[in-house]
Amino acid sequence: MSWKYTGKSPAIFPNYLDRETGETLHAEPGKVYDIKAADGTEYTVPAEEKGADPITKRLPVPPEGPWERVATTSATTTTGSSAASSATSQGKE
Asked: How confident is the model over 17-46, as pLDDT tens digits?
């Protein structure tokens, strides 16, 4: 699943990775990213029932903030999207 960052200014999400680059998520307004929680961001909560094992959870994807779900296609990737480059060169955004 891909997500479009709809914020008005760039943002860094240190607990998340851009799957395409494998690096910390540096979101730019209008760009589309395939996002995952970084390794080591899991956390454990106590079990709801006495005697049960604790529950390990991961951070939600996308991170908290202004994100819009977009369909995943081969042209829907981060910074180097050919579809986005084509639309921009034709004056469309």
From this structure: 999 999 999 999 999 999 999 999 999 999
